Amino acid sequence: MARKVSKKKKPSKDDYLLKEREKLEDLVFDKYTLKTLARLLAKNIITKIDCPISTGKEANVYRATKPDGKFVAIKIYRIETTRFFRKICYIEGDPRFVKIKKDRKNLAFAFTKKEFKNLTLCRKYKLNTPKPIFFERNVLVMEFLGEKGIPYPPMYKIDVPGSFLDIILKQVKKMYSHGLVHSDLSAYNILAGKKPYLIDFAQGVVSEHPRFEQFLERDVGNVLHFFRKDDEKEKVLKWIREK
Fold it and tell me: Is 200 labeled as catalytic in the residue annotation?
């Protein structure tokens, strides 16, 4: 059964771009971000930033254009935020990030690098995630997921087919079998294209993390709750953990 969430229709391309350009004009970038974006331009990784895709408490995502005219997504982690301290549990315990200085700047840089590494693993295992392209400091460049310049919406915003649940759980199982858990999976972090795409991997942890299993259980619970299948959690977890 499809999970009915909203009857809202996607905005037209022109309306979307006009609204998002107006938002972009009001945003302020810190010196680290401006220098990094300047290097992206100098290296011809991008030619311009077009418009915001999403804004969050820790990071903003923008659509940008490459020299060949194709689009990419740029995720910029905010340096001037204290929320990274609340998410330090995703860094501590990860053997890939043992010697990290725990100040705002270095935590922002660490989460950027962490997401790039996690997405690289996901693509290696052929999961439905954006392809990571480049990262530097607090800026991550990755594949743009959308059609005709309009990004795919988060799953919670539209009606999605019931078949998405099976696809998502198979992705979770595949990740787990390779020693990776998303750790913050929900309808907010899954894009609804022709198939579901898992995004926002900065908090993803590997199997050596002490809360690896706990984060798996939370991810599965969030997904099943969205599809109103809460009573299947134990059965699904058993299936995911099977060799």
Answer: yes
